[in-house]
Amino acid sequence: MSIESITAQLIEAARIGVPCQPIRNLIAQNNIDTGYAVQSGITEQRVHDGGHIVGRKIGLTSPAVQKQLGVDQPDFGTLFADMVYHEGEPIPLESLLQPKVEAEVAFVLGRDLDHPAPSVVDVIQATEFVLPAIEVVDSRIANWDISIVDTIADNASCGALVLGTVPHRLEQLDLPNLGMSLEHRGQVVSTGAGRACLGSPAIAVTWLARELRRRGASLKAGDIILSGALGPMVSVTGAGSYRADLGELGTVTAVFSEGISA
Q: Does residue 238 lie in a domain region?
């Protein structure tokens, strides 16, 4: 099957709100580069339809999440303006298919990261501030039956994101030792730490900057970067709120509502 046909299949699944079957068997040799070609096609179509790119997300950085999904390496996807929600702003469940939540550190860049081989130092110098964030991961693949190629093609299983409102400078934080707990209805449903994200969220963003450069792209000033999960993701089973506490970085709450049009 052609890249265009696979792209159309995933776009249609998102449009009608019905997940499709895994697409990995439609891609020769389960090829990661072909997966990114499908993702690019979806991105181009969204931009053509008026979508505004605001940054990138890194996925599959946490060993716990890799184990949950049976994969063994990170990936990345593209963030659009209509995916971004503010603290407490209702997220309509009707706009999602199979949502799960995970707590992360969001980086906001103050300068371009277009060096040929960006380092952690370059990432730190380019970062304007960081925010606590909850990513709503979602899959257009039925039953989350995904391989690395499925999730890459499906824009790294991106659904939405919620950003905290109190920025912090990186020099104020010990990212590897940053603790995380995620609560739902007064119960802790996920815990983790910054070191679970490739050793540090800053290392994860460095991986992304290098991978994009290898693929002929780069991170830009103003980009929002979701750096990856700090602990296991949690399924969203209905309306309600999820509160992430990231220690000295602060808290952020995602609120899901039913019966609200997207």
A: yes
pLDDT of residue 261: 42
CATH number, domain with residue 130: 3.90.850.10
CA distance 216 to 250: 35
In the chain, the number of structural domains is: 1
First to last CA, the chain: 32
Q: Is residue 189 part of a domain?
A: yes
The 10 Å Cβ neighbour count of residue 178 is 23
Mean pLDDT by 10 residues, the chain (262 residues): 90 94 81 93 96 96 76 91 95 96 98 93 97 97 92 96 96 94 96 95 97 95 97 94 97 88 39
Q: And the tokens for 74?
A: 């990170």
In a domain, 262, yes or no: no
- Tell me whether residue 29 is in a domain: yes
Could you give the CA distance from residue 70 to residue 81 in angstroms, rounded to a whole number? 30
pLDDT value at position 180?
Answer: 98
pLDDT value for 29: 65
The edge-to-edge listing of strands for the beta sheet with 240-245 is: 90-92, 251-257, 240-245, 179-184, 187-193
What's residue 143's pLDDT?
95
Q: How far apart are CA 254 and CA 184, in angstroms?
A: 10
